[in-house]
Amino acid sequence: MSNPFKFLWDKFYTMFLWSSGADLEVLDQVPMEKNKFYGIGGTIVFTALMATFAGGYAFYTAFDDVYPSIFFGFFWGALIFNLDRYIVSSFGVGDGKKTISGQEMIEAAPRLMMAIILGLVISTPLELKLFESEINAEIKRLNDLTTQESEFNYTAQADSLAITFIKENQSIEEGIDLRRQELEVLRLKRNDAYDKYMCELNGTCGTGRPGEGPVFREAKENYINLNEEFKNMEASYGQLNEQDLQGIREKEGRINNLRDEARQKSASLRTEFESRNGLLARLEALGSLTDKDSSLWAAKWLVTILFVFIEIAPILFKMMTERGPYDDIIDYKKHQVKVRHMLLTSNLNEEVNTDVKINAEKSSQKLEAELLANRELLKTIALAQSEIAAAAIAKWKEGQIQKARDNPDGIITS
Any idea which UniProt keywords this protein has (predicted)? Predict the structure, then answer.
């Protein structure tokens, strides 16, 4: 093994050991335990790599941008790596037996649930990539089906209105034809009256006498009346027919506009659905495929179960691992830390108790000093009061003696 290769191998080996969440200094003391943690760390690292590919692919599918997808892929892989490392490292060796007990399952349940959720999240984008060709075909089928349904709805709406307009136009055209027939009947009557009128004038029919006689005047008047009626009817019906024809042209224009609008909506919808190829569309297509094809459903769930198993494998492995020297050293170090903590707590309690006793003694001494000072003060007050009373009595005595000297009779009388 060449030196550069050995250097890289040592770096990878150390990285895998660190990824397992193990204490590298402790592992150096028990090298026989390294392979166990190397396997755990390798599983965590390769799970993070799969998460990197899955996150990058999912982001690229959603946003169709390469560089942000690469950044997000590495970010997602680092996030999954950190979560996996925490989940595995925070779980101890269990009961130290090769079998998995019910108590171990209860203790590991929250971590197993987190690992299962991570496995599902990681597996979904990779499933989309594995079944990419089938998903693309299903997306096209679903888009075509939705587009055809929408086009049918648009066309049906336009055709329904068109049928209504066509029926209205047919009714209008029937009215126009009826007026034309009436006008044609009147025109024929007018022409017939004209022929009789001219024939009577020329003497080729009727009375057989040319010139303007009573019969001629009657035929002429009949012609004039019919001709006037024909002109009036022609003008009136011509105006009505023009209005009806204008209405027909407007309705035909609306029919053409509706059909053009339906074609535009259909084309716009088809363009929209052709570009519908994002993450949600792929998830919907995958769901549709698994609903229709049991083989694809089984393959999809086998892939999901595989990734979930890879995610929970380190935890199960630690639950089935017997206690080793590494665990004994870790427990010893934890016990040392616990004892140090208890010792520090005990010393702190002793310091606090000593301070309390000192403060209590100081308070007692201070109280005694205050009591002593109060006793001395009371004595001084009592002495002063006695002196004041003696001085007041002496003063009163002097006053009474002086009164007795000044007025002995008054003292005796009183």
Answer: Coiled coil, Membrane, Transmembrane, Transmembrane helix
CB 125 within 8 A of CB 54: yes
pLDDT tens readout for residues 317-376: 777 777 777 777 877 777 788 888 888 888 888 788 787 778 777 777 777 777 777 777
Question: How many domains does the structure of the chain reveal?
Answer: 3
Q: Are 69 and 59 in contact (CB under 8 A)?
A: yes
Distance CA 214, CA 237 (A): 34
CA distances to 135, 157, 209, 251 from 262, in Å: 30, 8, 73, 16
Predicted TM-score of the model (pTM): 0.51
Going by C-alpha positions, the residue among 377, 319, 312 that lies closest to residue 101 is: 319
Question: 131 and 206 share a domain?
Answer: no
Report the 10 Å Cβ neighbour count for 71.
13
Whole-angstrom Cα distance, residue 363 to residue 370?
10
Radius of gyration of the chain (CA): 58
Q: In terms of residue numbers, what domain contains 47?
A: 3-140+281-335
> What is the Cβ-side half-sphere exposure of residue 208, based on CA atoms within 13 angstroms?
0
Select from 233, 259, 276 the last residue of a domain. 276
